[in-house]
Amino acid sequence: MTEPKRKPGPRRALTEREILDAALALLDAGGPEAASIRRIAAAVGVAPNAVYTYFADKAAVERALVESLLEGCDGVVGRDPEAGWRAEVEALALELRRRLVAHPGAVPLMLGGPMDGPHALRLGERLLDLLAAGGLATPVAARGAYLLIVYVLGAIALEVADVPQAGALPPEEERIAARRAAFGEVPAEAFPRTAAATGVMATWVGTEQFRWGLDRVLDGLVAG
Predict the structure, then answer these.
(1) Are 20 and 68 in contact (CB under 8 A)?
(2) Which of 96, 133, 153, 184 is surrounded by the most beta carbons within 10 Å?
(3) Could you tell me if 195 and 188 are in contact, meaning their C-beta atoms sit under 8 angstroms apart?
(4) Got the DSSP string for 6-39?
(5) How far apart are CA 201 and CA 183, in angstroms?
(6) pLDDT tens, position by position, for the chain (224 residues)?
(7) 104 DSSP 8-state letter
(8) Going from the N-terminus, what domains does the chain have, and what CATH number goes with each?
(9) Which candidate, 77, 71, 115, places its Cα nearest to that of 93?
């Protein structure tokens, strides 16, 4: 006696948000190469073709991830009506740094493709607004906005590169302590200036250095 055919179960419901969350988790664990379409599909429990329903290819997923990380980033601006434009720029830069330090696997995506989605454009527009509020003419504000983005992304990229293994970054204090221990092996006889500066050089991957550099960039924009 033949068994009756079973009806297929309900199709797995899937959303773009689930796909992006899975992709981000893979990035956090193993870097950009880990977030393949096949692995993303396995993480959400569907066949790869289901992912292609939402995204044409891996590059489309990566662009959407960049947008997702930038979404609402400018929400830190305007909370304090007494804050000046410099404080607002700093808050914006620190928020972007915070998001990317939390997801270091996504940093190469920011560096490797155009930031031209709606959230990226909104972030750029907000930055131009703030620089205009600081008295910078439109051409100078445009150059200054690019300079600030280069500074923020460059600083974050170097922080991430300082930790060789993929995955979440250790806490800032641990990373600084590890650098301090490594610098302790620098022979002072051969590299006296380096040996004398190691206390500061160990903090290059920290918030203090990030703020210090950001202040100098803003000083230069105002002075120029």
Answers:
(1) yes
(2) 96
(3) yes
(4) PPPPPPPP--HHHHHHHHHHHHHHH-GGG--HHH
(5) 8
(6) 455 554 444 455 789 999 999 999 999 888 888 899 999 999 999 999 999 999 999 999 999 999 999 999 988 988 888 889 999 999 999 999 999 999 998 999 999 888 889 999 999 999 999 999 999 999 999 999 999 999 999 999 999 888 877 777 899 999 999 999 998 889 999 999 999 999 999 999 999 999 999 999 999 999 87
(7) G
(8) 16-223 (1.10.357.10)
(9) 77
List Cβ neighbours of 120 (8 Å cut-off, separation of 6 or more). 66, 67, 70
Residues 6+ apart with CB under 8 A from 123: 70, 73, 74, 92, 96
Residue from 126, 127, 144, 130 nearest 223 by CA = 144
CB-based burial label for 38 (10 Å; 0-12, 13-18, 19+): exposed
Location of structure tokens 């550099």: 213
Q: Which residues contact 213 (CB under 8 A, 6 or more apart)?
A: 151, 155
The CA-atom distances, in angstroms, between 196 and each of 11, 36, 48, 162, 192 are: 64, 46, 55, 21, 6
Q: Is the four-CA dihedral 178, 180, 186, 191 of positive or negative sign?
A: positive
Residue 204, number of CB atoms within 10 A of its CB: 18
